[in-house]
Amino acid sequence: MSEIKAIIVDDEQHCIDALRTMLQKKCPEVTVLAGVNSVAEAKQHIDELQPDLVFLDVEMPHQNGFELLKCYDKILFDVIFTTAYEQYALKAIKFNALDYLLKPFSVQDLQEALRKYHERRLNRQDAGIAPLEVFLQNMKTMQQTNKKIALPTINGLVFMPVQNIVRCESTGNYTKIFFTDRKQLLVSKPLKEFEELLTDVDFFRIHNSHLINLQQMESYIQGEGGFALMSDGTQVEVSRRRKADFLKKAMQF
């Protein structure tokens, strides 16, 4: 296994020390080039040392970890985010299918993150660093509907503008995605995860099995729960218990 040159970025020195020790004892293929406490220091060390991998804390004072990535037009290193539970940060990370370690994390968590890193490294010619590049694009996009979401499939990740999604339908532990071009995609995530990621970009779960893009809804048909008529011609049932909240939200469009 080839050497991985890494930098740790965290505003808490004890977190840097703990991760460095964990890597030395359990992940000897990783060589820690530096541990730094701020975005400014991180930028300087990354430019000088050219690491393969950066362990990047999200929640830091003054500038967070995301601000570091904004310093680059093209990112030539991989990132594993380290974060305590913080809804906004985790949602942004999951939206783009990026790797993260949730503090406090175990040796097993760390080794699993590094296993995924090695897989990406082996597939570099095919996959590149698309998730980070898309993440940068999303951060620079003001309009929520212009953002792209990472959709995990059997063959890897597909990046799709959220405005091109008409609706999502639950199929057990999988979700079927329906697009404006009438194509479909089966994704290995439950509908609940898409509900968490997409409610901020004008999606609404109108039924236990259905999540719709309100921007792609053409009309509402009255009934006990009623039906949402979508831009692809489908009628999607609205559950009775979700009807009032749905109509309240729909009135904003």
From TrEMBL:
SUPFAM superfamilies, per database record: CheY-like
Record flagged with keyword Phosphoprotein: yes
Occurrences of domain HTH LytTR-type (ranges): 149-253
UniProt keyword list: DNA-binding, Phosphoprotein
Coiled coil: none
Protein name (Swiss-Prot/TrEMBL): DNA-binding response regulator
SMART domains: LytTR, REC
Modified residues (4-aspartylphosphate): 57
InterPro entries the UniProt entry points to: 2C-system_Tx_regulators, CheY-like_superfamily, LytTR_DNA-bd_dom, Sig_transdc_resp-reg_receiver
Lineage: Bacteria, Pseudomonadati, Bacteroidota, Chitinophagia, Chitinophagales
Residues annotated as domain Response regulatory: 5-118
The species this protein was found in: Chitinophaga cymbidii
GO-annotated molecular function: DNA binding; phosphorelay response regulator activity
